[in-house]
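2 proteins. here.
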Amino acid sequence: MTMTPEPLVDQSVSVVICTRDRPELVRRAIGAVLTQEHPFPIEIVLVFDHSDPDETLASDDDMRRVRVTTNDRQPGLAGARNSGIAATKNSWVAFCDDDDEWLPGKLTAQFARSLRWLAPVWPRRVHQLR
């Protein structure tokens, strides 16, 4: 009997973007994540690091949601990322710096590589790796 892999694991991803007082840069970073060619839902968790959050950046789109939160931990990137991780809703998490603009195929390429790595463990359920 040949084992065939289960359907692809859930490829919904949460992207944590941390920012502090860089509104123009963070808008470009958000735009680059929102335009990913990734065919699965993407949730952006936008973390304002001890600065006033801009709630106008939030979006409830089911495929490309943007949630705004604040860093309630240690000030700085590490604390902001930890606050972002705590707020995510998906199993997969990616980080995008607020001054970064991802190319449109970034997430698709990263998932392709990750899923090749996971292929040998298909007989086990992927959630058991967590």
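next one coming up
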Amino acid sequence: TSWGGGGARGPPGSAPSAAWYPAPGAGRRGGGAGAPPPPPLDPTEVDELHDELAGEFLHGPERIARSHGTTFLLLRDSAGAQEHARRVLELQAALPEAQRIPRIEAEARADLAAALILGGELDGAAEVLTPITTLAPERRAAGLVERIVHVGRLLSTEPVRTSPGAIALKESLEEYTRVAAPRQLGGGAARLALE
């Protein structure tokens, strides 16, 4: 069988020749030599998969900013993480209350607290966490619990680990995650990729 270039596939067990592989674009709509051009897109056409179930494919600016903030945390870039986490909170605050996503805001607050700790701002971290301490255990989603666990780990590092404020905050966060619904921890200690 020839694909894309006219070459034949070798005998079973042998490495195929380069000509056996499809030509670039041959498997895509409108790709490949001699293929007809794709029909023009109709902007009014409804694509149920992507338009009505867009949650898997389309993220709003607050989710994108949150993802960027988490990336900066992975890089241990306090300033960058703070900037994006604060952006999430600003975007959420600008929305009507019915359109806000509490989970996104809570996770952004946890990321902001972690970024503040990286920057040595312990008091600011404690303050930004205050609104999420009242969340009922069953509303503490896995992503939030993992972020809180990460904040607790940062409180055990230099230069903050020996300060009374860090010790008290770490203890309160341990209690926060302990009483979270067991399903949020998946039966064991959730390990965050932010280590």
